[in-house]
Amino acid sequence: MLDPRILEDLGARLSGIIAASPAADIEKNARTLLASFFSKLDLVSREEFDIQTQVLQRTREKLKALEGRLDVLENPPDKSL
Length: 81
Hints:
This protein folds into 2 domains: 1-42; 44-81. Helix content is 78%, strand content 0%.
């Protein structure tokens, strides 16, 4: 597996090279364009996704319990025995 420090060093060197060239403007414009594009998408954070997953799981559990109670109410046990 690659050492994260190597990747950080490479990124820092590339950033330095790009900052000293006309590519810096291209990078700035590309970042702005991508930020604009992503802001138009209906995205949620991983944290929000995980929270909603937990809410859905609890809702499913409650629904299953209510379906069981409803089944007992609609089909009461036969007490004539």
